[in-house]
Amino acid sequence: MSDIRHSLLRRDALSAAKEVLYHLDIYFSSQLQSAPLPIVDKGPVELLEEFVFQRLNSLQELQLLEIMCNYFQEQTKDSVRQIIFSSLFSPQGNKADDSRMSLLGKLVSMAVAVCRIPVLECAASWLQRTPVVYCVRLARALVDDYCCLVPGSVQTLKQILSASPRFCCQFITSVTALYDLSSDDLIPPLDLLEMIVSWIFEDPRLILITFLNTPIAANLPIGFLELTPLTGLIRWCVKAPLAYKRKKKQPSLSNGHVTPKVPKDSGGMDRDSHLLYSKLHLSVLQVLMVVQVHLTEKNLYGRLGLILFDHMVPLVEEINRLADELNPLNASQEIELSLDRLAQALQVAMASGALLCTRDDLRTLCSRLPHNNLLQLVISGPVQQAPHAALPPGFYPHIHTPPLGYGAVPAHPAAHPALPTHPGHTFISGMTFPFRPIR
Q1: For a designed S-S bond to 398, which of 214, 386, 388, 390 qualifies (C-beta 3.0 to 4.6 A apart)?
Q2: Could you tell me the pTM of the whole model?
């Protein structure tokens, strides 16, 4: 590598950066012939950091991005593409990471604009194997470019669904990790929300693509994106009524825009957002209903929870805190809608094997939440039946018949504060279990 470095020093910055890509292509193509997973050693990484990430002005950087887009498009071997992309953009924990992440954001943004599918596929793999703290930085760069800076540009991002569903799945997982609704500026922009809902509503199984196409061990690494965006999407649906109510209570700038006025009858949420979260909630429930089949196919039923109980704990704590903060007297409809959605998501997730926990765990978790009739039904558990063979004793059994005497997914998910009344159902033989209908 020292001879290559001396040669590169005699070139201008752009030519040197281009030459580095050329040498890396030769180097890794040769290594892949002898080893299926070559190790990226220190030499290539140092060349990249010196000649690609630190010596270019803005015009040269733009030209380099075009060269990179064309390179990944023209390289026919996916294994070579993937390892070059990884060597370029895998964080190294040093000062070059900021330049590395900046260039990555611009490259993926350009790939979206000109529909360079190989780049998007490499980015999807990168998101899958990179710590979440870096994934959300890439997500923010794309949201800024396509949802905030130029009105209407979200349509360009929206169209990549057919080009790279795998990237779209990973992008959704990243933005749900980024926008956790913990503050007003972490509520997803309306354009982003609308695009994601349209993607998922068109094909709910989109959010399972990474899970379905990835070899999976029962123990997943900590600090990386989850296999699906299910947890993040449940968080959006459940917290949205309370987060938007909080936003209305304390007007502020959000995502660079002044908080809009909203109709009084929709609480703190404007009508468009309200309908979008309702559609999203329905789609999430639909996906949860088919998860059990896929877990069984992969021999992971009862062994792998796609929704981790440990991730439900902070969600419930956040709901409880928001409910206290908003005052039940002023936000009763929003609190009930939030808890209805939580109950429905928990019910279907447990019934399908996506969430593994005991009913005692669930009772303890939800004990401090405001009272909600549907939630009480869920944590009380279904009519007793033989435990599922794949689950250890004490875990919520698989429900072959409609759970809780209440359809696996109610005909009208908790999507709107004014829904038709449901009749009472028999919970235990000979005993009617009345409950207040969803409002």
Answers
A1: 388
A2: 0.83
